[in-house]
Amino acid sequence: MTPVESSLVELFARDPREPGWLADARLEALARFRARGLPTSRDEDWRFTSLAPLAPVVLERTRPADAEDGAAPVAALLARAPGGGGPRLVFVDGRLRPELSAADGLPAGAVVASLAQALRETPALVKPHLGRLARPEEHAFVAANAALMADGGFVHLPAGATLDAPIVLVFLASGARPALSSPRTLVVAGEGARASVAEVFLGTDGVYLTNAVTELVLGEGAEVEHVRLQDESRRAFHVGVVVAEQQAKASLAAHALSLGGRLSRSELRTRLVGEQASVAANGLYMADGERLVDNFSWVEHAVPRCSTTETYKGVLDGHSRGVFSGRIRVMPGAQKTVAYQMNSNLLLSDDAIVDTKPQLEIFADDVKCGHGGTVGQLDEAALFYLRSRGLPAAEARGLLIYAFAAEMVDLVRAGSLRAAARDLVQARLPAGARLLEAA
Prior knowledge:
Strand content: 35-45%
Largest sheet: 10 strands, mixed
Number of strands: 20
Mean pLDDT: 93
Shape: globular
Low-confidence stretches: none
Distance between the termini: 50 Å
């Protein structure tokens, strides 16, 4: 085993206060991880992404004192996180900070709480769903998360519940030590429920691993917007796996904005199991220097008359590398499926690399499916036009890059989440401070 794999195994500890079913699930997940180990480039789904930079890292446990010692940096991170006036839970180094959190104004029967609290107080709401979609036997990072998760978010929306303000789950990393954070989030939306849920990952400078797993259970006719904003330390490692299941007429809009991390991977896996379900998967990824950012999606159409739209954009500079691998599988009998994939990339240097692999696996004959990918550079004519109007070179480049990226930001429906995403993206651009002032 590599040092990081050994340290993950050594971090496992049994909690005698846990219910037996959860303790058993942890032990099984640990066994799965030990047998499987972390993926390598020999695994098809990881063919373009090497975990070699992570292999020598020895991970440690976070301690409550870490967050206390890093109070000032944590406050600065929290100032960058979206609010919006709705429920917000704040976790620092994987631990809920109640004094920074609030879950008021919920409709009757709705629950927004930490997962640890929900396991103590409402286990009947958690047990039927936790681990049902994200299965340790299918994914090494899911297995590690299932064995080592300590806390995370729990959202339960009863049938017909509607939230106008987004639910925001903020995960902050103090960067005090090479620590592991394993947040686990479970969102259960009942029949006809409507809400926006955001997971925000921010970190101070440091080497650490965030291994996040999210399960989304959408009942018939539920409408959920799920937004992941990831702007971790430039030396950190981040793996985020979102697994969803959608019943009839359920609608999922999933946005993944991957901006930080030395090596990051964002995954979306969803099954459409009820007719007329739909998913819109949107992603924006940005990298520079020697950083690598990977996006993976897997959508299975199990029944007829469902639709998928995937749109991912990447902005790559320096010697960075971007990866997009998207797979849409149309199962036998899933007639009248409509599915499209598009991946567009903007390369800002001659040394940046992108690997794009949109895929369709179709086992039905009455479908409308397509995919495509583009790789290009900044339009020199447009750049010359802006320079001729008096804009400095850095601002002109920043405006053109943002014009390319803004399509993905503007797809976020919740206004406060869209504004936060815009600010994080613009801060990554040339002359970003000036662009923020102009906005």
